[in-house]
Amino acid sequence: MVQKSKTVKKQENKKATKPPVKKVVKKEEDLEPQKDLVFARVKGMRDILPQDSKVWSKIRSKMEEMTKAYGYSYIETPLLESANLFVRSVGKGTDIVEKEMYVFDGVDSAGKVALRPEATASVVRAYIENGLNKTPQPVKVWYEGPMFRREKPQANRYREFHQFGCEVIGDDHNPAMEAELISLAYNFIKDLGIDTIIHLNSIGTVEDREKYLVELVSYLRSKRSYLCVDCKRRINKNSLRVLDCKVRGCQSVIEEAPHIVDWLGDKSKEFFMSVLEYLDELGLPYKLDYKLVRGLDYYTDTVFELFPVDKDEEEDGSQSALAAGGRYDALVEHLGGQPTSACGFGVGLERVVNKLKEKSKNGVVEDENDIKIFFAQLGIQAKRRALGIIEELRKDGIFVGHNLAKSALKAQMEIADKMQTSYTLILGQREVQDSTIIIRDMESGIQEIIDQKKLKVRLKKILSQLM
């Protein structure tokens, strides 16, 4: 018999005692996009994945809660509109119309059509076309959905993005309505857990601006050599847009530019002061920003943007504003309706989502509506009965997590643990026969067995204690 050497024996012992290699399973949020795919998403577009569903659900619930509290009704307009609608409303000289709209040949006699780059013009078109001016005024509506802009993809900017917005049409030029809108936008974001500060300015009436633009154009021409290529082009086409430029080289020119508030008429000044008085009464934090003009042609009088209070001063303001809006008294008439005053705002939802994830632990956003009870089943009969119980609970407003694709109790309990549920219902073959069910406290491990007929009452009591 061949003797094994001491060295060989040592190596064998090492192999025998060497701990097994654990297979590392990446968490869903750690997964990276696969490379060399046959199909990949279009540049500038994004997927909203299941791991982000909690934060989007939280935001949408807050939208419905806030708009109901303030008395706004839901409106939905088509993704596809006449391209001329946006050319006429947003303005020919704006970046949206010149560079960013997705324009196509329409069908039938539609002419050129465009994927909507913003929603205000669409809402106003719907107001005029559907005779909403004949209903009680003002018409207060809210919307949520995707917008499209063919701009360069960068941080917090996508070619398809989602907006939540509110519009008030037919408000009789009332500063209280602007204050309500600003309050709604501010409290919507605050209730989600983000503190913001409101930046405000007044750009006056069309007549006020015409006088101011003479002075502004003269000043910009004298500083032309210091401006970026886009701003040089804007001097004669859309000079107000220069004040909205975020190119660092243009900042010193903008700082020294004449302020539009110095050119406001008495009525515009009085109106703006009224808006500020309402905000003071509400105790909302705001800052007067005389460079703020917004980039769309339809704005008049008050314009505003909401910035996170922890915004880095070096950050591009156009990318850090979470909400923006203002008054647009001339737009309804400009699109073919009767002279009608109006105001509104839009919230960039991707920016809100990203800010919430930044503030949360490990990018996980808690939701007060999180499932707090999990339903585990063991055996074929229990699985069949589980479906019925889950449906009965749902009808009574009690929602439970579950995974009927899993059969092993251990696997289901791991899911319940990952969901951080407070209690787990356990239904096995014996419980099916006895018409009972087990309720397990996930923290203490204590279990109780109750009659299935008493389950709803017991769960309502548990849920009331968890709130």
Structural features:
467 residues, alpha+beta, BirA Bifunctional Protein, domain 2, Rossmann fold, eight-stranded mixed β-sheet, five-stranded mixed β-sheet, 39% helix, elongated, disordered N terminus
Description:
The chain has 467 residues and is α+β, with helices and mostly antiparallel strands. It has 2 domains: 50-205 and 265-361, BirA Bifunctional Protein, domain 2, CATH 3.30.930.10; 373-466, Rossmann fold. The chain has 17 helices and 16 strands. An 8-stranded mixed sheet has the order 1-5-6-11-10-9-7-8, with helices on both faces. Strands 13-12-14-15-16 form a 5-stranded mixed sheet, sandwiched between helices. β15 and β16 (447-451) form a beta hairpin. The chain is elongated and about 85 Å long.
